[in-house]
Amino acid sequence: MSMIEKNELVKRLEHISHNSYLPEQDRETIKDTISVLQSMIQKDFRKTVSSVEKLRETISGDFYIVEEVAEMFGISVQSVYKWIKLGKIHVEQFAAPGGTKYLIPKEQFKTPKYQKQIESVKRTKEALARVKPVVDEPSDLYPVTAEDDMEELDVK
Fold first, then answer.
1. Phi and psi for 100 in degrees, rounded to 5?
2. Which GO molecular function annotations are given, in alphabetical order (predicted)?
3. By three-state DSSP, how is residue 22 classified?
4. Order of strands across the sheet with 92-96?
5. I need a surface site. Which of 32, 39, 50, 146 has the fewest CB within 10 A?
6. For the segment 66-87, what is each residue's pLDDT rounded down to a tens digit?
């Protein structure tokens, strides 16, 4: 019996347990049954949470998500999906709310082919971070409006 079915049964039994026509002993038996079912639901819930946590650990340890691969290679998320479609990278698919999700095994990127690209992207990002201008006050920058353009063209 699934957790949802158990919850539904608990609701029905709670409704029945309030029936004043039932003998007190039957109502007590129903209440005991409800307690047992609620205990089973809690155990099922803890198992579900535990398995989700284990899955999360496995995913973070052995897999990348699409966004991580995009950042690693300095490309767009759409490009990663294109690579997946073309079979350039291997993925494990699973159905999730909102559509298919992809987990990308980390192991495949440990080859020299990918390592060179990853290192190149890292070096480029580091170099850009060093030369990126810092603008404290944009004193030399002025807003341009359509009115300014019209004056320059002597149009009004």
1. -75, 135
2. DNA binding
3. coil
4. 63-64, 99-105, 92-96
5. 146
6. 999 999 888 899 999 999 999 9
Gap between the terminal Cα atoms of the chain = 78
Q: Count how many Cα atoms sit within 13 Å of the Cα of residue 141 in the half-sphere of its side chain.
A: 4
Residue 94, helix vs strand vs coil: strand
Q: Residue 3: which residues within 8 A CB-CB, separation 6 or more?
A: 41, 44, 45, 48
Amino acid at 40: M
User: Is pLDDT at 153 greater than 60 in this prediction?
Assistant: no
For the chain, give every domain's residue range.
Answer: 1-61, 65-132
Dihedral sign from CA coordinates of 92, 96, 100, 103: negative
Q: Rounded distance, CA 43 to CA 111, Å?
A: 44
Distance, CA of 150 to CA of 124 (rounded, Å): 42
Alpha helices by DSSP H, 132-152 = 146-152
- Dihedral class, residue 33 (left if φ above 0, else alpha if ψ from -120 to 50, else beta): alpha
**The two structure tokens encoding residue 143:** 């807003």
Look at residue 156 and tell me whether its pLDDT is greater than 80. no
